[in-house]
């Protein structure tokens, strides 16, 4: 994963991710271009901004009903703020028979920190829901919204 991120952030992420759950980085174009993006954050976070074309599925309210129209062999990239919630949703998807599921390395924070675009109401925005003030320290770019 190519990111001039701090040692502290890399260490945090290493502690969050399970070794056996696949990660995808922003440089993995072959996967990202073919994938459906699922946003595992809460609705108010998604409404502030999200990755273009992402489908909101939530975390606390997640149900397999939200993904029933997605084929089981479709490439899926799940993301949240840093990747903890999305990894848990990804595991549920795999248990339900989805075969090609990835967790977005570093979540939307890493995405924005690497100058990748986010959108709200179809328009590009700089705003990003920073989850909380303590988690917001990891969001180095964009306009933090709480």
Give the secondary structure arrangement, pairings included:
Blueprint: H1 7-16, E1 23-24, H2 29-32, E2 36-39, H3 43-48, E3 55-56, E4 76-79, H4 84-95, E5 101-104, H5 107-113, E6 118-120, E7 123-125, E8 127-129, H6 133-136, E9 143-145
Parallel strand pairs: 1-5, 2-3, 2-4, 4-5, 8-9
Antiparallel strand pairs: 6-7
Describe the structure using short key phrases.
146 residues, 6 helices, two-stranded antiparallel ribbon, globular, Oxidized Rhodanese, domain 1
In words, what does this structure look like?
The structure is a single chain. The protein has a single domain (22-145), classed as Rhodanese-like domain (Oxidized Rhodanese, domain 1, 3-Layer(aba) Sandwich). It has 146 residues and is an alpha/beta fold. It is built from six helices and nine strands, in the order H-E-H-E-H-E-E-H-E-H-E-E-E-H-E. 29% of the residues lie in helices and 19% in strands. The model has no long low-confidence stretch (mean pLDDT 95). It has a five-stranded parallel beta sheet with strand order 1-5-4-2-3, covered by helices on one side.
Give the CATH class.
Answer: Alpha Beta
CATH-derived architecture: 3-Layer(aba) Sandwich
Any idea what the CATH superfamily is called?
A: Rhodanese-like domain
Number of domains: 1
Distance between the termini: 28 Å
Which percent range describes the beta-strand content? Answer: 15-25%
Overall mean confidence score, pLDDT:
95
Task: Please bin the fraction of helical residues.
Answer: 25-40%
Overall 3D shape: globular
How many individual β-strands? 9
Largest sheet: 5 strands, parallel
Pattern of helices and strands: HEHEHEEHEHEEEHE
Poorly predicted tracts of residues: none
Q: Spatial order of the strands in the main sheet?
A: 1-5-4-2-3
Counted by DSSP, the helix tally is 6
* Radius of gyration, taken over Cα atoms and rounded to an integer in Å: 14 Å
Counting helices, strands and paired strands, the structural category is: alpha/beta
